[in-house]
Amino acid sequence: MTAIPSAARVCIAAAVLCAAAAAVPVVAVLSPAPGAADAAVPWTTVLLLTVLYAGCELPALPLLPAVRDAAPARRPGDPVPAGAGTFFPVLLAAAFLLPPAAAVLVPVPGALLGRVDRPPAGARRAWRAARSALGTWAAAHTYLLLGGERTPGAPDFPYALVPALGGALAFWVLLTVLDGGIRVMADGMPAARGALWRRVPLRTVRRGFSASPVPYCVHGLVGLMMAVLWVSPYGPPAALFVLLPMYISCWIFAQYHRERAAHQATIRALVQAVDIKDRYTRGHSERVGRASALIARELGMEEERLEVVRFAGILHDVGKLGVPTRVLRKEGPLTPQERRVIELHPEYGHEMVRGIGFLGQARAAILHHHERMDGSGYPYGLVGHQIPEYARVVAVADAFDAMTSTRSYRRARPVPVALAELRRCAGTQFDPRMVRALVRALERHGWQTSVTSDETAVALGPQRMPEGPGTGASHQIRTG
């Protein structure tokens, strides 16, 4: 999805207008009135800080092309990566050194020149420039309101700590409000009528306003250190040394992305191997991962846990690599012995991924995704909440996709029928909480059914949830 919703475009336009209005007072000081020498803008400082911030952002243009190619595209509403904002100290130093209207100008060129991963690039660059400018403006005003000096010198350093932290917190508050607001506009606005507070899900608001203030306080202290060194006898060159730890952290963050891309490549290779071996369920793993993530997001899981759940869904059937191909591809009914062989695939999968440390609790989900709430599942017959939470999520996602996918030996069930069957088996085979979460997620997002055999694909189209409950199916779910 590359289109920006109309509500989000309005939000972007409003932010751009507010940023422009915040910069208007700088026009008045281009020709200051007599006796108002203190109102003059230190344009040399503005230019140096602007170039410095733009230079810090420019390396992001060609950064790690292999990582960009390997990593999945971020979806609307996904959080900004944890390393974003590495060069916020430059903006906060500008807020502590310059009048607010001049500080607004510093982030604009760098934000406009920075890399944009998805179109429309113009709107996304405008949003990034406006939010950074408004954050810097808020930090500068708060710093002055709390008694901070516009050019803090070394003797005033201890007294500038409180205004600097206040400015950093104002920077955090405004960026968090802006990011949370546009995320609600873009991702949390269902079509139902009613008051806004009723229509926007709490989980969307929580995800939108979940940024921690601690990193921003650290950025504020680093920005204050830059400002102090900037006006010291050593001058601006000394302030550049403060950025050295920022560059080191940026390098570490790049290494993290490189490692994460390697993780993604490992997962893709395993999934492709399963798809090649079991042609009847081709694409099933990716869809189970997607459905698992929908359930986890509906449950309000944090992004880090949500990623683990998605990994678990994608790799839940990796143990099929240890099952003989003739058994997987058998057209007719399975014998009891063949059934026992297939039921070993969770244990095979757990053994295969046991040494992959980044999977974390996803390994337990791979092992236990065929356990049932009443204890009749396998491999260990766990009961109720003895079954790991991630495994209960994947079990529902696995069964749902198995029922709604067309395969060579049967047609897909309609989405309402599949959900009715999940409801019927809730409490015995499935965790009712996970079933309810999937139903709510599909009411918002719908589901695209697929063909997972070697036959020519049949376009079934997205199936949206109706207003009323579906008709339950009469037989027990077989997943696989």
Automatic annotation (TrEMBL):
Region (Disordered): 460-480
Domain (HD-GYP): residue spans on this chain: 259-454
Transmembrane segments annotated in the record for this chain: 87-108, 158-178, 213-232, 238-254
Domain HD: 281-403
Keyword Signal: yes
InterPro entries referenced in this protein's UniProt entry, alphabetically: Cyclic_di-GMP/3'3'-cGAMP_PDE, HD/PDEase_dom, HD_domain, HD_GYP_dom, HDIG_dom
Region forming the signal peptide: 1-28
Alphabetical UniProt keywords: Membrane, Signal, Transmembrane, Transmembrane helix
Entry keyword annotation includes Plastid: no
SUPFAM superfamilies on file: HD-domain/PDEase-like (SSF109604)
Pfam family, one: HD_5
Name of this protein: HD-GYP domain-containing protein
Organism per entry: Streptomyces peucetius
